[in-house]
Design brief:
alpha/beta; globular; binds uracil; 10 helices; 7-stranded mixed sheet; Uracil-DNA Glycosylase, subunit E; 238 residues
Amino acid sequence: MSEGPAARRLRYLQAMGIPLWVPRERGASTPATAVSEPSADGSGGDEGLGWDELQAQVAACTRCGLERTRTQAVFGVGDRRARWMFVGEAPGADEDRRGEPFVGRAGRLLDAMLRAIDLERGQVYIANILKCRPPHNRDPLPEEVACCEPYLQRQVALAAPALIVALGRIAAHNLLKTQTSLGGLRGRVHRYGPQGIPVVVTYHPAYLLRSPGEKRKVWEDLCHARRVVAQADDDAAH
Ligand code: URA
């Protein structure tokens, strides 16, 4: 007999390391949704470019100097018309080598997070704040973020997702132009860019690898995110 959706979800929660005795209904209820003001202006020098032109521009980019140490730029991957967009920090060593975001250990956990909400990698769009790996995986510098920002702004404008999930502090702070702690940003709906695209914040999968006890919070965030997308779908249907 084939596995039903409930059994499948349990299996993926198990794969994420979330104890199965957690009552699912409790996990699904998150704090009331608050809406914050748009904070990124969404404009950049790359407006007007289509996906392929933009990708070519990123591949040849020398704006910030990281091209001197990268193997290749890591543009983004997935469905370019996805309802869900996930934004991480910057490529690591594995991503720099393979040219695709989230393909290392953190990426495998991201895949498990996606499966937990019945999504596959190919059904979402995944990108990073920075397209090139900072040496020794150091945090992105503000000037590097500023150079790279128009690329992400254009990716968001082209994909026009129903929701952006910011993975971790660096993604959240740079998307939302805030210094508020991750804990303070979770459980709310923020807005990005001129289209006011909803943004939900959660922990970075690399952090979860170090702090597996936080996986339950990520499950709550993903349930929250799923409700935001369902609401957007509902609004679009009426
Ligand atoms: N961490 C990120 O933030 N992005 C990647 O692509 C890989 C690891």
